[in-house]
Amino acid sequence: HRAEPCTVVIFGATGDLTNRKLIPALYNVAVEGDLPPQFKVVGFARRDKSDDVFRKELEEGNRKNSRQGHNDELWASFSQSIHYHRSEFEDLDGYKALADLLNKFDEERGAPANRLFYLASAPEAFKPILEMLRAAGLNQGVGGKWARVVCEKPFGKDLKSARALNETVAATFEEKDTYRIDHYLGKETAQNIMVLRFANALFEPNWNSRYIDHVQITCAENLGMEGGRGGYYDTAGALRDMVQNHLFQLLSLVAMEPPTDLSADSVRDEKVKVIRALRPLVGPEAVGANIIRAQYTAGSVDGVPRVGYRQEDRVNPESQTEAYVALRLFIDTWRWQGVPFYIRVGKQLPKKATEISVHFKRPPQVPFATARLPGSSENTLVIRIQPDEGIALRILAKQPGQALSMQQVKMDFRYSSSFGKASPEAYERLLLDAMAGDATLFARRDEVESAWKFIDELENAWHKSDTPPPMCEYPAGSWGPKEADDLLRQDGREWRTL
Ligand code: BG6
């Protein structure tokens, strides 16, 4: 597929995402020569500023955040495509003026262009922006060209708000023109999960409850609430911020049935079935027994002292929001009967690392009567999503020498050494896909709503019951609360050491 010529309008263009991710992604796409011809970006935001000032700010962001560095000459030509448009999000006149601006660009080009509207504003503004786009007629393509919308996260904060937002989106754009971002799907290694599973004869036959003991997904971050993030985060928490979207997407890719083809809907049909098959956890008792929530207390990460979650900037000192969550989930399908999926995600953990580990069952019998199996001896397939992208397989081998003793050894594939070049950033891939009309790596309406349906029950048990499960604690810089270790210990298992 190819990105088609278009103008991208970014709402909330003075925000952090535009500066840190979106513009550097577009710049890198330009450096690679993949940007469609006659491309333009319009930043739409409330503050007054000129094109020049806007470009200068983005240039600074690009210097810091561009994956392939910053080249003055390339930037000079790329930045000519960037414009700024000032308006309130609720002001119809601002959208009419935007339409005039887009028409003017079309005249300069000599032909109408496609239009991609990117909602990167605060989530409260999504609804008015969509309504105003419709009122100004901008939701319709001109001259046979398309108009599409990209929605950043968070997509709602529960099922009710997600449904309401989906209604507003659906009243403005067709589902086929709607692209709900989950940037984890844009990560190269997340896309590789399907290739690993369905293009290698070695793995798929073993990928089920007969051979797999359990699966772990860890998403650790060594950051807290820097850069004012506490304000948003404290209204969300780890479950809403990370599990409902990113972790459930990874879970779906690991657990889905093979799709019949690689079209957007075939893949998403299979992914949503995984979420629908999650065994429901309803009520504080079931939730307490399977889900551990926690906040960090003061500690240190990488030798740097950190304050506790409740002492963070813009966090309520009595906050009941979790900065860490560990889950034990079951997927009620034939393939996964009885196989636990353990997920943990948290802030202020010792390092940044996202990985999936598939732990295989032990052989039914080991024919070396005198040899003892070492402690952690199961075959484990580790998919490193980030950093140090790659896949490792741990197997048992005989130690050299007269005696028969065994040791776990590692076979390792690393993206950086096997391919010799850095993978594109998630946003590069996703922006190009949206411009090319490929929605495979975007969340569909039913996926988002099914995920919220499951998450709502957990949030209810925590926040709407008289006997909520406890909020646990862990010192910043540790691997989470001891209750999360107990969760696996009860099952005779332990978290993988990262
Ligand atoms: C975002 C969350 O979606 O993902 C953040 O809102 C989190 O809280 C971020 O830090 C992590 O993304 P990545 O790509 O750095 O793993």
TrEMBL record:
An MF annotation (GO) of this entry: glucose-6-phosphate dehydrogenase activity
Residues that hold substrate according to the record: H183, K187, E221, D241, K347, K352
Domain Glucose-6-phosphate dehydrogenase NAD-binding: 9-192
Keyword set, alphabetical order: Carbohydrate metabolism, Glucose metabolism, NADP, Oxidoreductase
Pathway noted in the entry: Carbohydrate degradation; pentose phosphate pathway; D-ribulose 5-phosphate from D-glucose 6-phosphate (oxidative stage): step 1/3
Domain (Glucose-6-phosphate dehydrogenase C-terminal) ranges: 194-496
Entry annotation: catalytic residues: H246
GO cellular component, one term: cytosol
InterPro entries for this protein: G6P_DH, G6P_DH_AS, G6P_DH_C, G6P_DH_NAD-bd, NAD(P)-bd_dom_sf
EC number(s) reported in the record: 1.1.1.49
Top-level division of the source organism's lineage: Bacteria
Reactions catalysed according to its record: D-glucose 6-phosphate + NADP(+) = 6-phospho-D-glucono-1,5-lactone + NADPH + H(+)
GO terms classed as biological process: glucose metabolic process; pentose-phosphate shunt, oxidative branch
Binding residues for NADP(+): R46, E88, F89, K153
UniProt similarity note: Belongs to the glucose-6-phosphate dehydrogenase family.
Entry function: Catalyzes the oxidation of glucose 6-phosphate to 6-phosphogluconolactone.
HAMAP family to which the protein is assigned, alphabetical: G6PD
The protein's name in its UniProt record: Glucose-6-phosphate 1-dehydrogenase
Name of the gene: zwf
